[in-house]
Amino acid sequence: MKTTIQTLLLAGRTLTVEAPTEPYALVEQITADEFAVDERLPYWAELWPSAVGLTEAVLAGPSLVGQSVIELGCGLGLVGTAAALRGAERVVLTDYEDDALRFARRTLHLNGVGPARASTALLDWRRPDLTERFSLALAADVLYERRNLLPLVETLLAVLRPGGRAIIADPGRATAAPFRELLVEQGFTVTVGQRATLHYDRPHTLDLLTAVRP
Question: How far apart, in Å, are the Cα atoms of 201 and each of 3, 72, 169, 173?
Answer without folding.
Answer: 21, 26, 19, 21
